[in-house]
Write a structure and sequence with these properties.
Elements lengths: L14 H25 L10 E5 L2 E7 L12 H8 E5 H4 L20 E9 L3 H8 L6 E4 L6 H10 L3 E8 L18 H14 L5 E6 L7 H9 L7 E4 L8 H7 L3 E4 L2 E2 L6 H18 L1 E6 L3 H11 L2 H4 L2 E3 L1 H11 L1 H20 L1
Helix pairs in contact: 6-7, 9-10
Length: 355
């Protein structure tokens, strides 16, 4: 059966559109006449703005309510003078009104930051509790062979402090760093086993620093082997710098770890005047560089001097931070260093995937 094509639609004619068009044209003509008469002074414009004659152009002051954050109505008359802005009438139909942005408040300068690290925590529990009672954020470096290491780590975290493994490492000379210390003569397997054991003894540690280690930290290969055992946890490594020849920070950063170095030994000389002098040095260094890392020990004299200093005016101008907070800030403020750490982390991840 042949399908019949539908008939084309016919246009519908009506007088209504034509009439509406005529009304619109008449309204437009009337508006033009009213505007012409008003502009020649025939009768006043509606009182939306006041005008002052000035040469060829009129300067019109228009009120703009700017307190947009408030839900309460604000009388226009109360803010008219303060919020008025001049507009050139001759150009107002062609150019948008530009409102100058408000001046930004001046940014307060960043206060100097100091990270306090207390080493050798764990063997004297009462001294450790006194350390945890210090009224500022700090980092507690706990010896892994201390009987109370796990309990003190938990207390430190509950107090808002960073917990760090204080890892025994081989020194120059005959001093004993303690059980299961990292030594250059150990095999790779033994180095890594001791590293993992020590971390397990200080649960919740955000990283580690070296206890002694003036010999071990000068050997990049031994350091790399030991740190690679825990590098997948992205720990922070704080080089205590027990020797100027240490390669700790460089090796840690090469493995993709966050890394810092000690700036001030607080109580190398166990004397109140000497400790106070080191505190003053830390403040000066933080003022110059923006931050400082100082390491002390839980000696009674050190803690007594530190407690008194923290209550002094000199300490009120300092922001005390944990090492992890400081390390994150340092990485953020040094894009080149951050990029190198990220690159090292990527390479390390690729190498782990190829194993």
């Amino acid at each position: 059966m042949t399908r019949r094509s539908p008939a084309p639609l016919k246009a519908r004619h009506s007088a209504i559109p034509a009439f509406a068009g005529a009304l619109a044209a008449a309204a437009y003509l009337l508006g033009a006449i009213v505007f012409s008469v008003a502009s020649k002074g025939g009768f006043p414009l509606p009182a939306m703005a006041s005008a002052d004659s000035s040469g060829q152009h009129q300067g019109v002051r228009v009120t703009r309510a700017r307190n947009l954050d408030s839900l309460d109505p604000v009388p226009v008359s109360a803010v008219a003078d303060a919020l008025a802005a001049p507009i050139d009438v001759a150009a107002s139909n062609m150019s948008p009104v530009v409102i100058a942005p408000a001046d930004r408040p001046a940014t307060a300068p960043r206060r100097p930051r100091i990270a306090i690290v207390i080493d050798d925590v764990g063997l004297d529990v009462s001294a450790a509790e006194r350390v945890l009672g210090l009224p500022v954020p700090l980092t507690v470096a706990i010896l892994p062979y201390a009987d109370a290491s796990a309990e003190l780590a938990a207390l430190a975290r509950m107090s808002g402090h960073d917990v760090m493994l204080h890892m025994p490492m081989e020194p120059v000379g005959l001093a004993d760093p303690g059980p299961n210390a990292l030594r250059i003569g150990l095999s790779d397997a033994d180095l890594q086993a001791r590293m993992r054991w020590a971390m397990s003894r200080v649960p919740g540690a955000i990283g580690l620093n070296n206890h002694m280690g003036s010999r071990f930290t000068t050997d990049p290969r031994a350091l790399r082997v030991a740190l690679s055992a825990i590098s997948h946890d992205n720990p922070l490594f704080l080089d205590s710098l027990t020797t100027a020849e240490s390669r700790g920070r460089a090796v840690a950063a090469g493995l993709g770890l966050r890394a810092l170095e000690r700036d001030i030994f607080l109580d190398h000389d166990l004397d109140a005047a000497s400790i106070e002098a080191r505190l003053a040095e830390a403040v000066d260094l933080a003022g110059q560089d923006g931050y400082a890392v100082m390491i002390g020990h839980p000696h009674a004299l050190t803690l007594e001097t530190l407690e008194a200093w923290l209550a002094s005016p000199a300490a009120q101008a300092i922001d005390f931070v944990t090492t992890s907070t400081l390390a994150d800030a340092v990485l953020a403020s040094e894009p080149g260093l951050q990029a190198s750490v990220v690159q090292a982390s990527v390479i390390q991840a690729v190498n782990r995937g190829a194993e």
